[in-house]
Amino acid sequence: MIASKETIRLIFGLKLRQIRQDKKLSLAQLSKQTGISQSYLNEIEKGKKYPKTEKIVILASALNIPYDKMVSLKLSKSLSPIAELLNSNILNELPLDLFGFEMSKVVELISNAPSKVNAFIMTLLEISRNYDMTQEGFYLATLRSYQELHENYFQEIEDEADKFIEKNGLKKKNNSFEEMSASLTKQFNYNIDLEEITEYPELKNFRSIFMPNKKNKLLINPNLSARQQTYVLGRELGFQTMKLKERSYTSSWFKADSFDMVLNNFKASYFSSALLLNRDLMVDDLGDFFSSPKWNSDKFLSMMDSYSASPGTFMHRLTTLIPKFFGLKSYFYLRIDNEVGSKFYKMDKELHLNKLHSPYASEKEEKYCRRWIAVTLLEDLQKLQEKDPNVRTVVGAQRSIYIGTANEYFCISIATTSPRKNFNMSITVGFPMDKALEENVAFCNDKDVPIREVNQTCQRCGVLDCNERVIEPSVYLEAKRLRKVEKRLDDIMN
Q1: pTM
Q2: CATH of the domain at 27
């Protein structure tokens, strides 16, 4: 890899600072020895300036270091993780501007505290290795943080969707597959194919594949429901309308080459949701639903079915609107996949607004609590499907109290068929039982909604007589053993 000018400046600055400090020289002392101003030396060490050859010769002589070693891009062993970070180009790939950071500030941090940054980087690398974090995983985690920072609501994309509907004479609700595909074919010269993807068995799990080099050919999986196919069209309209060039050409997700690709994929998906689930109409519907003092699963299902969007799209759209229009700025969103007939549940998507809430993904594949409504609804759906294969969706609500904590959530959950063959999925949105929920959701204290004590995973749960337990509480028992050891030590020391 050819190092960028910025990387060369930063490495030289880090090296100069380390050598100077190893020789116990202050900036003022080095300035006096070399005749180079203290302010200029400071800018060199911060990676803002790279000295001319004659000045490097003077510095090398004053520090008694060979010239070739001074200009080498190799850093000492103690700084090698920082060198690895710089040469990986990750600083250029990180979307620092989205979070209000300037590259110069990051450079200054590394220059001012290289040993602390070194320890931090080593920690990140260790965590990454332990949890087998991929590049895609890192980008997706960054995207979640970006969504949380903006409370998962993006006015500029909402505006783009509104403009598109008005410009193209679309309805605010229930635009058909034919109407959406007409926009793609007429405006952007798409060629839509609903059969070819079935000719390639290894591609059966992709919802769509876009091939710009083949006259904008869009392959859509025919196994998708009509609503899921319409959502695919909405995403493509999002890519084209917002001119998002760096993108993935497959959906479901396959590979991420950059954060911009991940971000643009999210923007196009958000655009599609805004097209299919008009903000103003859905806010009115949710306002009416939340005003009822009684939870009503049938009414929720009816509201969801009134839109030409899949249950998954509806639930995700709900999470974009409730912080902005209903004051519910704290919630969790979980999506769990389950192969029909299997007792294995995989959390493949999550979002936490305001803080990390009690239910979250287990990277160690621990067994999620079987008392979660997300899991019980999947079990209920499978039983119903055994009697009637045409059953596609069930809806429910539950108040979940996390054992040993003050955390209680009102959870709205659906279980529905997945785009993946022989899979179901559940999607749950949980709101803390707090003042904001009581002021905005009348049915949150409905006594007919079941209340259950739950935990994170079986391995971490101390309820030893739990009927739903599927594995021993290994993490809980180890923590209990360590507490006994700690107490014994305190006893004998005091």
Answers
A1: 0.78
A2: 1.10.260.40
